């Protein structure tokens, strides 16, 4: 029986687990999956920005980096600026999952890359090539990545952040880690933060277990974050979307059976 560990919070992992079970059943594969989050997400009050000021400002473009960004932004608008709406601007997202979450919050169209769903693909969109003199807003977690903002600034844009959530480590117990080492043969991860927290929690003597696991990751960047010693069996999904992760898992399984 295949035993899969999904490094995602419960709400975000539910769809992936369902799709995994459906694919496994259709292929005649016995599978058990579970999910765990290495991080607890909580609201963050950005000391450098007021939500009301962000809503009142005029932006040429904006993006929310994740579903969490969309959800916590919506909470803060409801709490601190009820009834206030944002001025129209162009909205962008890395992929369709976060795009749907953003649409639910702002009720406006959101553009995202079509084939690959990552920052590089987003930055390659024609709409983002000529941004000199524009004002951009990035809604994100506290201390998030700088790639998108740095690239826009290099292209001449003025970039501002609104940080609406923060990540707090939520590490597994020694008993849980021991149980995983006995059972889990596949690990699926779509977040660099989840991966980093997980690897930090794993004891040194468990590296042999990780090296024997099949890894399904959402991007080349995540593959590059895996230590060389445990990156022998890695399948890269087209995106973090659940269907893409399941497709990658199935490809990895087929390669294992052929070898």
From TrEMBL:
Signal peptide: none annotated. Keywords: Lyase, Porphyrin biosynthesis. It catalyses: hydroxymethylbilane = uroporphyrinogen III + H2O. Gene3D superfamilies: 3.40.50.10090. It comes from the Bacteria. It is an enzyme of class 4 (lyase). One of its GO terms (molecular function) is uroporphyrinogen-III synthase activity. Pathway: Porphyrin-containing compound metabolism; protoporphyrin-IX biosynthesis; coproporphyrinogen-III from 5-aminolevulinate: step 3/4. One of its GO terms (biological process) is protoporphyrinogen IX biosynthetic process. Pfam families: HEM4. Residues 37-246 form the Tetrapyrrole biosynthesis uroporphyrinogen III synthase domain. Its EC number is 4.2.1.75. PANTHER family: UROPORPHYRINOGEN-III SYNTHASE, CHLOROPLASTIC. Catalyzes cyclization of the linear tetrapyrrole, hydroxymethylbilane, to the macrocyclic uroporphyrinogen III. Belongs to the uroporphyrinogen-III synthase family. This is Uroporphyrinogen-III synthase.
